[in-house]
Specification:
The chain has eleven helices and 13 strands. The chain is α/β, with parallel strands linked by helices. The protein has one domain: NAD(P)-binding Rossmann-like Domain (Rossmann fold), CATH 3.40.50. It has a seven-stranded parallel beta sheet, sandwiched between helices. It is globular, with a radius of gyration of 18 Å.
Length: about 300
């Protein structure tokens, strides 16, 4: 894979920071951040608010990227319910503007979406299945998908579910389970909410492969192995030698959450498997690498990237 200049939005977030660090091993990376500053020598950091009129056009003119990977979003499901206008601006309008201008400059766009566009009533969804978003977050993300697809048919739209280490240590379900179990705090895990989370670092490298192969259109980019949130917590406990007895199995219906959650977000990945010529990583392999990164001091290194801000 020849080196490319890659602009990554949301570069301080869970996916963005891991993607920027993985991509920077072989490519020239510009990481765009907003409120959370990042101090690193691994890639160039730019600060901008994508909601500022003209910001997208200015950034693209300044950076002249080959590839743009759009990770920035309002991803907190309950925050989207509380601020639906802001959710629409960030999750629908910004991707639409990006799609309009990225294509004009000859760059390729990969837009990150979510498995939550489905209602989760049956699971095993393919890219051909009709979405039915239940929350404001899911609705605005689906509208973002549609806007990108209509504006730039050559763009990649990737529906994801992920876990990993983050700058704050509070951005993924894996971190939530790990840090609370490590502190011997009792936790509740949903037995009736299923997903196929992929390690952010693995997801990052798959994105780079997809762009290098010049794929186009909609793909499900998730783990080839799925399970419940409760089972995921048990696997985290087992991997790190923590007390599984602290985990209490409960139903999502008893959790008192503001936004509706889709119960069975299991996605099929045959389309991407065929395009890549290999299966996607399974959850067990992802958890092994998650643990290895921990042993290598990766979480502490990430935290240090944000400490200067």
């Amino acid at each position: 894979m020849r080196p490319h200049k890659i602009l990554i939005t949301g570069a301080s977030g869970l996916l963005g920071i891991n993607l920027a660090l993985e991509a920077a091993k072989e490519h020239s990376v510009i990481g765009l951040v907003n409120n959370q500053r990042v101090q690193t020598k691994s890639f160039q950091v730019m600060q901008a608010d994508l909601l500022t009129p003209g910001a997208v056009e200015r950034i693209l003119d300044q950076t002249q990227p080959d590839w743009v990977i759009h990770c920035a979003a309002l991803a907190n499901v309950d925050a989207c319910e509380a601020e639906p206008v802001r959710a629409y601006q960030l999750n629908t309008e910004v991707p639409s503007i990006l799609a309009q201008h990225v294509a004009r400059g000859g760059a390729r766009l990969l837009h990150v979406s979510t498995d939550a566009v489905f209602d989760g009533q049956r699971g095993q969804y393919s890219e051909e299945d009709k979405p039915n978003p239940l929350s404001t977050y899911a609705k605005t993300k689906l509208d973002g998908e549609l806007a990108v697809a209509q504006t730039d048919p050559t763009a990649i739209i990737a529906r994801v579910n992920l876990f990993g280490w983050s700058i704050s240590g509070k951005r993924s379900l894996a971190e939530f389970f790990y840090y609370n179990l490590k502190a011997n705090k009792p936790l509740k895990g949903f037995t009736d909410v299923y997903s196929c989370p992929l390690l952010a670092n693995d997801l990052a490298n798959i994105f780079l492969e997809m762009l290098a192969l010049e794929l186009q259109g909609l793909y499900h980019v998730v783990s080839s192995e799925c399970g419940s949130k409760y089972d995921f917590g048990l696997q985290i406990a087992g991997k790190f030698g923590l007390n599984e007895g602290l985990l209490e199995p409960i139903s999502v219906m008893d959790a008192g959450l503001k936004a509706v959650r889709s119960p069975r977000l299991t996605l099929r990945t045959e389309k991407l498997k065929q395009a890549l010529g290999k299966p996607l990583p399974n959850l067990s392999a992802g958890l092994d690498r998650f643990y290895t990164l921990y042993q290598q001091g990766y979480p502490q290194n990430l935290k240090q990237l944000g400490e200067s801000s």
